[in-house]
Structure formats: structure tokens, C-alpha cells
Design brief:
There is one protein chain. The strands form 2 sheets. Strands 7-6-5-8-9 form a 5-stranded mixed β-sheet, with helices on one face. A 4-stranded parallel β-sheet has the order 2-1-3-4, sandwiched between helices. It contains 7 helices and 9 strands; from the N terminus they run βαβαβαβααβββαβαβ. The model has no long low-confidence stretch (mean pLDDT 96).
Length: 258
């Protein structure tokens, strides 16, 4: 599989030798952690500004069919970051890892280890699991963990919607998660589309594990105190509805934690 480096920091600040040293150290540290990087980057170039992000991504996607990851070196706060994430996450589905140029020119083992953990998770690897003898009894049957929140637009903004997000485990460890995002009416605490979001998450879990969860544990963030009861009543029913719509008689235990 291929990987690429795009450096948006000028050559006088991050020299080609700095990039080479970074690749060498990253390869060494990742190997020590059991995450072997098999080859040099297929592409390593200096790019000028945010307008070049889209053409560069399209070129890499077409040129390197097995491209797994693009590491992007940034000088600091820049519009390049948002454009990189838009192209990588929303348009082409290629994993991206941004890094500040100061961390490329002065690498430390700790920083590179943390970087490897992020990259491994983005590429579908497993960073941590509970050792079997420490696993609670809860794990004796299939269980899915979910986390949900709603983010509201800033005060005074009457145009932007609120954004509801649900992450859910897709393996038995649990270490891998799927994410579902929906937009909804601004400043509404209750998640309007929770039934369809939960259905999608349960199907993902079943596809990956071959099991239907016997228990759903949902951690719910972003609820104002006055909305506790409204959220609990609506969303508990929405989760139940998702289960019954998937299969009549499917009634897993539900733990709802606010």
C-alpha cells in the first residue's frame, strides 16, 4: 500500500533533509510499535496554498490506486487544514494525518508514538484492548457502545443548523467505531433522526461481528439540564423503534447514560 507526504510549509522552514529524517524516524518508531511501514512515501512534495489541495488529492487518487494515507505538514493555523479534511473525509475517503512543521523538524519518540496511534486507528488498526482476565461480565454477551451528542451553532447565528452525531462500536473489544452524522433544526437538544442513526449503527455492528447486540449502552452528551426528561423519553423510544424496525421481537437491554 502507498502513502504520501504533502508539505505546505516553505522549503526554507522544512528542508528536504528534515522530511527524510522524519520519514526515517517514523518508520523506526512505528516498527518498534508493531506497525510496520513497508516502503518510502510514493509522493513527497512541497505544495503552496489551499487552492492546490483539491488538484493534489485528485492526482494522488488517480495515480496511486493503493493510496492509504496522506501526511500533511502544516506551518500552523491555516485554511489548508479544513480543505484537507474536506477532501480526505468527505470527498475521496482517504485517511489524512496533519502535523505541525515544528514536530517534523524536531521529532521526539513520544510525539512519533502518539502520531502512530492516530494513524493506526485511522487505518483500521487496533491500539488498545482489555486483557481477557480484566474484561467485565458485561462482555460475556454481544454488547454495543454508543456515544451521542448535538452541537449547536454559536449564539446569534440564525442560519446554521445543529449537528447530531452518533458513534458506535463495531467490534467486540471494543476498539473500532463507526460514525453517523445528521443535521437538524437549530438549537434542538433531542436528536430527531436517532432511529435511523441507531439502525445504521446496529447493522454496521452485525456486518462486522456476525452478532446482534444483546445490550446497547448509550452515553449521551450535550443535554442541558432542563431537557433531561424530554431527551430520555424521546430517545429511548427512538432506540427501541430502531430495534423493532430491524427485526420484530428484537428487544436488547438498553442503558442510557446522560
Amino acid at each position: 500500500s502507498d502513502w504520501a507526504i504533502a508539505c505546505f510549509t516553505p522549503q526554507q522552514s522544512v528542508k528536504p533533509q528534515d522530511l527524510k529524517n522524519f520519514v526515517d524516524r517514523l518508520t523506526q518508531i512505528s516498527g518498534d510499535l508493531g506497525m510496520r511501514i513497508m516502503r518510502e512515501p510514493c509522493f513527497c512534495k512541497y505544495i503552496h496554498d489551499a487552492t492546490n489541495v483539491q488538484p493534489m488529492f485528485n492526482y494522488l487518487k488517480n495515480e496511486y490506486k493503493d493510496l492509504q494515507l496522506i501526511i500533511v505538514v502544516l506551518p500552523g493555523k491555516t485554511p489548508v487544514y479544513a480543505e484537507v479534511k474536506r477532501m480526505g473525509d468527505s470527498v475521496l475517503g482517504i485517511a489524512t494525518q496533519c502535523i505541525k512543521s515544528k514536530n517534523v523538524t524536531r521529532t521526539t519518540a513520544q510525539m512519533l508514538s502518539n502520531l502512530c496511534l492516530k494513524i493506526n486507528a485511522k487505518l483500521g488498526g487496533i491500539n488498545t484492548i482489555l486483557v481477557p482476565e480484566n474484561r467485565p461480565r458485561l462482555f460475556r454477551e454481544p454488547v454495543i457502545f454508543m456515544g451521542a451528542t448535538v452541537t449547536h451553532p454559536p449564539a446569534g447565528d440564525n442560519k446554521k443548523p445543529s449537528i447530531a452525531a452518533l458513534v458506535a462500536s463495531v467490534d467486540g473489544h471494543p476498539s473500532a467505531y463507526s460514525a453517523v452524522v445528521r443535521i437538524q433544526q437549530a438549537r434542538k437538544d433531542v436528536i430527531s433522526s436517532l432511529t435511523s442513526m441507531v439502525k445504521e449503527s446496529l447493522v454496521n455492528f452485525y456486518r462486522r461481528t456476525g452478532f446482534k447486540p444483546h445490550r446497547i449502552i448509550l452515553y449521551r452528551d450535550g443535554v442541558s439540564e432542563g431537557q433531561f426528561n424530554a431527551v430520555l423519553q424521546h430517545e429511548l423510544l427512538a432506540i427501541r423503534k430502531a430495534c423493532i424496525e430491524l427485526e420484530e421481537g428484537y428487544r436488547p437491554g438498553i442503558t442510557f447514560i446522560v
